[in-house]
């Protein structure tokens, strides 16, 4: 479920003591979308080792001093591709290359439009569920992920020849 949250201007700033000077200057210029995209998606919380114990009802994590509730969700903000760190982009590239290799092993064909879109959505869902990185499959993300396919398949073909 995608949710778009609209917050008043003083609460947009992550500065807990009030509004930062940068936000005030940007709001005066008419740019109220300084700290994020404002688009969120609701995802199920991954409780890790506590997942096995949730069959017995709600648990309490004494190490982090917080309750663990089955079916708990959290909101993850959408991020733009150019705002991702280098490590996150590398991780995204590795997931895409792995998905293309898996597709190559099963079908032994270059993925086309429908298969490529399914691979992209699979990779983006993995990034969302495991790493809490919500990327929309827009033009920039799709071209970034599509540009990974050809070198991956070329590498696989080179490995098959030798």
Mean pLDDT over all positions: 77
The rounded distance between the terminal residues' Cα atoms is 47 Å
Q: Describe the main β-sheet briefly.
A: 3 strands, antiparallel
Give the helix proportion (percent range): 40-55%
Strand content: 5-15%
> What's the gyration radius in Å?
20 Å
Structural class: alpha+beta
Number of strands: 5
Low-pLDDT runs of 5+ residues are: 1-19
- Strand-and-helix sequence, N→C? EHEEEEHHH
General shape: elongated
**Spatial ordering of strands, largest sheet:** 1-2-5
Q: Counting H and I runs of at least 4 residues, what is the number of helices?
A: 4
Question: Can you give keywords for this protein?
Answer:
single chain, 162 residues, alpha+beta, three-stranded antiparallel beta sheet, 4 helices, 44% helix, elongated, disordered N terminus
Structural commentary:
The protein is an alpha+beta fold. About 45% of the residues lie in helices and about 10% in strands. It has 4 helices and 5 strands, in the order E-H-E-E-E-E-H-H-H. It has helices at about 20-30, 85-105, 115-130, 140-160, and strands at about 1-5, 40-45, 60, 65-70, 75. The chain has a 3-stranded antiparallel sheet, with no helix packed on it. It has a two-stranded antiparallel sheet with strand order 3-4. Strand 3 and strand 4 form a beta hairpin. Residues about 1-20 have low confidence and may be disordered.
């Amino acid at each position: 479920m995608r949710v778009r949250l609209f917050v008043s201007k003083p609460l947009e700033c992550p500065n807990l003591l009030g509004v930062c000077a940068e936000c005030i200057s940007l709001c005066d210029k008419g740019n109220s979308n300084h700290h994020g995209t404002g688009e969120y998606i609701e995802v199920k919380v991954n409780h890790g080792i506590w997942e096995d114990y949730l069959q017995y009802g709600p648990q309490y994590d004494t190490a982090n001093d917080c309750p663990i509730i089955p079916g708990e969700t959290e909101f993850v903000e959408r991020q733009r591709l150019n705002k991702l760190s280098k490590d996150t982009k590398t991780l995204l590239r590795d997931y895409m290359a792995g998905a293309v290799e898996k597709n190559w092993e099963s079908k032994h064909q270059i993925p086309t439009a429908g298969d490529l879109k399914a691979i992209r959505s699979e990779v983006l869902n993995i990034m969302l569920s495991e790493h809490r990185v919500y990327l929309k499959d827009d033009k920039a993300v799709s071209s970034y992920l599509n540009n990974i396919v050809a070198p991956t398949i070329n590498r696989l073909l080179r490995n098959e020849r030798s």
